[in-house]
Amino acid sequence: MAASTLPMPGKRFVIGVPYVWLIVFFFLPFLILLYISFVDMGNDINPFKPIWDSQTGLLKLKYENYWSIFRSGEGGPMFQTLYVEAYLRSLWYALCTALLCLAVGYPFAYFIARSSPSVRPALLMMVMLPFWTSFLLRVYAWKGILADQGVLNRALMALGFTSEPIQLLYTDVSMLVGMTYVYLPFMVLPLYANLVKMDFRLLEAAHDLGASPFKAFWLVTVPLSRAGIIAGFMLVFIPSVGEFVIPSLLGGPENIMIGRVVWDEMFTSNNWPRATALAVVMIALIVVPLAIYYHHTGDAAEAAK
Amino acid sequence: MKNFLEKHFSKLWLALVYLFLYLPLIFMIVFSFNSTRQDAEFTGFSLRWYEALTRDTKIVEGFWLSLKVATVSGLLSALLGTFSAFVLVRYRRFGGRTIFSGMVNAPLVMPEVVIGLSLLLLMVGAQNFLGWPQRGMLTIIFGHTLLGMAYAMVVVQSRLLEVNRSIEEAAMDLGARPHQVFFLITLPNIFQAILAAFLLSFTLSFDDVVIAEFLSGPGVNTLPQVIFGYARRGINPTIYAAATLLIATVTMVIVGYSVWVARQTRQREREIAAATRAELTALGVI
């Protein structure tokens, strides 16, 4: 069988164009990022110094940018810096977002998967439709909904739940509402794709054998949808860690996440080496859960054999 | 009892989650027609915010810039994404395949802040060494294309994996040249996916604020950047008017697209049925 449908020059072209593009716009920038994270901070005109010592001609790597992320001041305690706090906060919020999306999205995806095949396309389309309109505008609208004098507070007061407005905007609540809102489709779609393939006769069998609905769900449905749960979790968790827009529109002033910190170091403090070092650590933080994910999916593939 | 509960609970849950998904859209549509700068009370119907929108040069200019950027980067993404999908699906063995697949997929998981930052460093470096490119429309296009092609690749790849290779082989056995096989068989088969890839990368670009914030120059602001600026300052119903127009456009495009797909599918089914009938008639079966 022919290895390709294209003659050799065509093959070289098809591989070459995206390859060169990726090397220029992905690989090279990443090398520059790595490079700057190992050099000294410069002045206003040159934001960073060259890596070669001009007098001795020797290479000098500065690990200081990385150390300064974890060590506070001279001889201060390790791991208690604002940067470490921002990383931990980002991971924590990403975890909360993923769990909230799972809690809201699992029953949702399950009910869509169990609805009649004729209405399923419409139900799915309705999940996707808001996704195609600007996410920024939808997050912005939450500001109006959650404001002190906003629609939600007025409704709560009118219904007699509270006599005065509750502070919702610029708190953890508003930020998690925004994050869950934006990332929910990323949880629902892989879960749906997984659940719709499930053989629901297995549930009937479990029921016939005397399992309660809850027991059948917990012992049959959940284990069978493990791959969907993990995929959805990763699809929500990974982008949440670096989220920049939602925290700056809905989050409180004290809940600064790592994306914002990188931005501030770059443009406010003009400390390019530290901004790049923070970005490199951020990538490392995302690679670890990804490695776990691939390890797990590898397991799943092994088990399926 | 169990069935009754499950039936109603499922309907209630679906309704609540859909309400959650659509609440911001309903909110924006309603308050875009409000007569005052109010975010909680509907004080009367008015079109003043739509009129304000046409006079807001920042929004209008941002819209045209975003449209240009999204169109160009959407086309580039669809092209590069299709190429990449071909490379990954059809060329199983070539030097540097692992690196290639890693590089194509990486933007899917990299935080946008990191992508924006590293591309900014590249542009600053290129500006110092080559004197080009100036930060502005072109640099935003580069950034959005890098992001868009990763998504475009995923869309085209999944379709390409489904293409029945034996049809291509049959065409080749019948003497079709490789480029004829590609343009007459492969391309029509994956065209819908390429279109979807274009639409997806167009939307990503039209929606992105983070990469644009890193890569745009002074005075060059895409629509999301303008909105982001307004959003940090406070209530501005002009934004709701813009949102309502966007929601209307997207809804029309999506509904139109699904009608088109449904019609195409039906037409193809009719053609297949007609061809089968003709063949059976020719064979004297009917």
From TrEMBL, chain A:
This is Binding-protein-dependent transport systems inner membrane component. Its main location: membrane. GO terms for biological process: transmembrane transport. One of its GO terms (cellular component) is plasma membrane. InterPro entries: MetI-like, MetI-like_sf. The chain crosses the membrane at residues 12-38, 91-111, 123-142, 173-195, 216-238, 275-295. It comes from Polaromonas naphthalenivorans (strain CJ2). The keyword Cell membrane applies. Belongs to the binding-protein-dependent transport system permease family. CysTW subfamily. CDD domains: TM_PBP2 (cd06261). The keyword Cell membrane applies.
From TrEMBL, chain B:
One of its GO terms (biological process) is transmembrane transport. It holds the Pfam family BPD_transp_1. Its main location: membrane. It is a multi-pass membrane protein. GO terms for cellular component: plasma membrane. CDD domains: TM_PBP2 (cd06261). Belongs to the binding-protein-dependent transport system permease family. CysTW subfamily. This is Binding-protein-dependent transport systems inner membrane component. It comes from Polaromonas naphthalenivorans (strain CJ2).
